[in-house]
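Submission sheet (multi-component)
Chains listed below:
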Amino acid sequence: MSKAPNSKEWPLWEVFVRAKNGLSHRHAGSVHAADSKMALEAARDTYTRRMEGVSLWVVPSNAITASDPRDADELFAPAEDKIYRHPSFYVIPEGIKNI
Amino acid sequence: MRSELALRLGDDGLILGQNLSAWCGHAPMLELDLSLSNIALDLIGQATLFLGLAGDADDLAFRRDVLDFKNCLLVEQPNGDFAQTIARQFLFSNWQEPMLRDLAAKGEPAFAAIAAKSVKEVAYHARFASEWIVRLGDGTEESRTRLIKGLDWMWRFVDELFEGEHAALRPEWDARIDSALREAGLERPAARRGIVGGREGHHSEHLGHLLSEMQFLQRAYPGAAW
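Outcome: structure written.
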């Protein structure tokens, strides 16, 4: 991990929980752990104690590459005026369920 | 005989659960704080069910004297440092899991039902403790030294687990313990004469201190309720 070897803190892991089969894993939070096994157990004890999940992923936090907030304009602003990318111009026939 | 078994199983969970809950707010990391408290709550939940087969669980937990407790001596041993707590959990959970599995298969229905629910919880306790044995034993010089000391302290109280009908569990327990110790690069502590008597109510001084804290409220304010 990227922590300094003499660091007292264990590395950080991001936790993803699948609430039930068929749904995707959602980010739930993070835990400190020395290795992946310990991270899974800490995630189990921290994020699934009230039956929140059926499956867990843990990922070293430093394996995640995040977008730079300063790039927000060029990354996200161009989508603002392109409402035609939303599927909102269809008339949904009556009687159609689950949309 | 039936209520004797309920007391033994219930007291094991109650006393170990009470001991472990003292880690709440004191564990080395927040995550471990939660892990140890979860295990404590599992055990206290099991104790409530088993003691319920012997009488009123609250009454038995909070208004019984030390000589009437039937837990094994291992579970009343002090937490010590984190390594000592893990050593105790490792030796106990690896016994409790196969014990409950047998009880779920062969016990009378009321016991079997509780055992079947509990064995899943305990399988996790055993896994958690065994992985920590490897981590501490194969970790730093300090973690290794502390773990060896912890195992050394707890080892005297192992024989009691296999008294009577539990003798048959020993080979499986030995195999589980040896496998984890091997992976941790540790030797089995030297064999010594086991200390027994907890099942008959002969306890170490530690249980009295634990009970005086656990039972304080009901002793000072009998019948107090939330």
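Remark: The domain at 2-220 of chain B is CATH 1.20.1260.10 (Ferritin).
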